Amino acid sequence: MLHRVSTVFGQTYCLRGNRQRCPICPGGVTNRKRGRCPHTQHTLLSSRLPQQNRRKAANRADWQIPMRPDHGQDILDGLTRKAQPGYPAIGRLKGLAELRGIMTALAHQG
Questions:
Q1: Whole-number Å distance between alpha carbons of 67 and 109
Q2: Cβ count near 96 (within 10 Å)
Q3: What would the 3-class secondary structure string for 53-98 be?
Q4: Which domain holds residue 99?
Q5: Is 38 a residue whose pLDDT tops 90?
Q6: What is the arithmetic mean of pLDDT over 43-49?
Q7: Pick from 85, 69, 91: which is nearest to 12 by CA?
Q8: Does residue 58 register a pLDDT over 90?
Q9: What is the pLDDT of residues 1-24, one digit of tens each?
């Protein structure tokens, strides 16, 4: 499953299909209108990295759990380009770098 992470008004969400239960929220809380459950990127990644490590230890070919930022910030040339709102390349790369930074910090945390 591809996990999409979005930040809306400073709150980070794991975006899942409408009315699906989030596997890491207490009680699998969902927002029926948007299918969002509020939790931090740290919470999401700290629950997924042990699973990814178990997959890698089992020598599975699909050991990496794919993640991507759902939307990016309009920064640098994204402010002047005529592109789809929320999908600037540089902003999404920044979001991906944030995800990778959290993953690296969690890996070093032990």
A1: 20
A2: 15
A3: HHHHHCCCCCCCCCEEECCCCCCHHHHCCCCCCCCCHHHHHHHHHH
A4: 3-109
A5: no
A6: 76
A7: 69
A8: yes
A9: 444 555 444 444 455 444 455 555
CA distance 10 to 41: 12
Mean pLDDT of 50-65: 88
Say what the pTM is.
0.52
Cα 45 off chain centre by: 8
Q: How far apart are the first and last CA of the chain?
A: 25
Domain count, the chain: 1
pLDDT of residue 53: 87
Q: How many CB atoms lie within 10 A of CB 72?
A: 20
CA distance 63 to 30: 27
Tokens for 26? 């207490």
